[in-house]
Design a protein that fits this description.
Oligomer: single chain
Strand content: 15-25%
Structural class: alpha/beta
CATH class of the largest domain: Alpha Beta
Strand order of the largest sheet: 8-9-7-10-6-11-12-13
Radius of gyration: 22 Å
CATH superfamily of the largest domain: P-loop containing nucleotide triphosphate hydrolases
Distance between the termini: 80 Å
Length: 368
């Protein structure tokens, strides 16, 4: 009669499975949970650091095969779970506490017109589709675009203790100045008022439990962007650009702003990279130049997250409040956003696993 398998044998069988981001065994990383042995049946969990892990299917398959190859095991049941790690932000002088939010991620651009808000929305939706709990905050006070891009309107309600309840669409929680305005209402505010509104959106909104809160910053390095980088406990930032030189020059300015306040740069996204005609699916036409985002990323030593192609249907989708990842999930653009979201989630997990820095920023801004 075959002796029953032991927990130690199961862990030894799983030890060769390596996490590509941490370059360590999933056993040494303590990803294996709840091992149960019932005669020849074995069950266990593989707990990942993010639900957006792109190799979870490979982990599940290899884990099952390795354990079922053990003598005395007939069936191995593998459950894939996740526990999103929280990065430890540094350099925040007036720290805002969001107890239920694990990671705040800024999406920024040096200039307007590069599709930053579209990238922010589809990044949030791709993370949601991976199984994460996600919120999206529109920090563009003067030109809020979230109501148009999502098709969501109406003023948010408040709780009994006067906290703002975010609106929801496509499974993500939303907040924007646009929900409090009509289409013809101009926003004429000075810096201190902008500071107060952003702080209110962070602290007075009942965000609840979130793995990721994506913050769509206004373009440039003005009041709203500076306020957020100095106020919010940002886990990282994504820079959106196009391939042309003017956008790349401004993208560098955004990178410098985040570097000054010790916010990790998660990477660069090159939006509207190329166009592929439907009748020529193997052709790519680079209308704004080629590999500009990749060159800047290599020059500055930061990750290049990927290219998002031009999709002529995107303008119509946006006008109808239909994000491409929802209405055309098999399109090249939606696939690009899925790949980019996976890289962002993995980068955040890697940062969270490292020892947090004790450096605190005290930045004096000047015009020199």
């Amino acid at each position: 009669m075959t002796n029953p398998v032991t927990q130690s044998q199961i862990l030894d069988a799983l030890r060769p499975i390596m996490d590509p981001d941490f370059n360590k065994s999933i056993v040494d990383l303590d990803f294996i949970k709840n091992i149960k042995i019932d005669g020849a049946r074995v069950s266990f969990e593989i707990e990942l650091t993010t639900p957006a892990c792109p190799v979870k299917a490979e982990f599940e398959r290899e884990g099952r095969e390795r354990v079922e190859a053990l003598e005395g095991v007939s069936v191995a049941e593998v459950s894939m779970t996740s526990q999103t790690r929280q990065a430890s932000p540094t350099g925040v002088k007036e720290k805002v506490i969001l107890p239920g939010v694990r990671n705040l991620v800024a999406v920024a651009s040096g200039k307007g017109g590069v599709g930053k808000s579209t990238v922010a929305l589809n990044l949030a939706l791709s993370l949601k589709q991976s199984g994460a709990k996600v919120g999206l905050m529109d920090a563009d006070v003067y030109g809020p675009s979230l109501p148009l891009l999502t098709g969501v309107t109406g003023q948010p309600a408040t709780t009994s203790n006067q906290r703002i309840i975010p609106l929801e669409s496509f499974g993500i929680r939303l907040m924007s100045m646009g929900f409090f305005l009509d289409d013809n209402s101009p926003v004429i505010w000075r810096g201190p008022m902008v500071h107060g509104l952003i702080k209110q959106f962070l602290t007075d909104v009942a965000w609840g439990e979130l793995d990721y809160l994506i913050i769509d910053l206004p373009p440039g390095t003005g009041d709203a962007a500076l306020t957020l980088t100095q106020l919010a406990p940002l886990a990282g930032a994504v820079i959106v650009t196009t391939a042309n030189d003017l956008s790349l020059i401004d993208a560098r300015k955004g990178l410098q702003m985040f570097n000054k306040v010790n916010v990790p740069i998660l990477g660069i996204v090159e939006n509207m990279s190329y166009f592929t005609p439907p009748e020529l699916p193997d052709n790519k036409y680079y209308l704004f130049g080629r590999d500009g985002g990749k060159r800047v990323a290599e020059e500055l030593g930061i990750p290049f997250l990927g290219e998002v192609p031009i999709d002529p249907r995107m303008a119509g989708y946006s006008d109808r409040g239909e994000p491409v990842t929802i209405v055309s999930p098999e399109s090249d653009s939606a696939r690009a956003f899925k790949e980019i979201s996976g890289q962002v989630a993995r980068r955040l997990s890697t940062i969270a696993m490292k020892e947090p820095s004790i450096l605190e920023a005290d930045i004096a801004w000047s015009n020199s």
